[in-house]
Amino acid sequence: MTKRAPKPQGNKRSEENERTLLLVNDNINSFDHVIKSLVEVCGHDEIQAEQCAVLTHIKGGCVIKIADMNTLEEMSLRLRELSLDTVVV
Q1: Which of 10, 32, 36, 84 has the smallest number of Cβ neighbours within 10 A?
Q2: For 39-68, b where at least 16 C-beta lie within 10 A, e where not — what string?
Q3: In 3-state terms, what secondary structure has residue 52?
Q4: Predicted local distance difference test score (pLDDT) of residue 17
Q5: How far is it, in rounded angstroms, from Cα 80 to Cα 86?
Q6: Cross-sheet strand order for the sheet of 85-88
Q7: How far is Cα of residue 88 from the mean position of the Cα atoms in its chain?
Q8: Alpha-carbon 68 to chain mean position
Q9: HSE-up of 85 (CA within 13 Å, CB side)?
Q10: 3-state secondary structure of 19
């Protein structure tokens, strides 16, 4: 039997405080607008933003960011100001 290294305990608190920001499909905004908004607000690169836009369109939603609640609430507010529908989970 192979022994596994113990998991680091230092990250446990940060993981407990992490939440997710979900982009919800709205059938109103163009792909270009969604991509530009994700790059601007979430710091995505063009490819990541495009993939999130496509997944949101196909599946109805996509996790676009994982972070602490305060960070996600600020991003969610900014994205809503840009007419994107988001939910912090």
Answers
A1: 10
A2: eebbebeeeebbebbebbeeeebbebbebe
A3: helix
A4: 84
A5: 7
A6: 61-68, 18-24, 85-88
A7: 9
A8: 11
A9: 12
A10: strand
Q: What's the start-to-end Cα distance of the chain, in Å?
A: 39
Say how far residue 2 (Cα) sits from the centre of its chain: 37
As a whole number of angstroms, the longest Cα–Cα distance in the chain is: 56
> Is residue 24 a contact partner of residue 76, using CB atoms and an 8 Å limit?
no
Q: How far apart are CA 74 and CA 41, in angstroms?
A: 9
Two tokens at 40?
């601007």
Predicted confidence pLDDT, tens digits, the chain (89 residues): 445 544 445 545 456 789 999 999 998 999 999 999 999 999 999 999 999 999 999 999 999 999 999 999 999 999 999 999 999 99
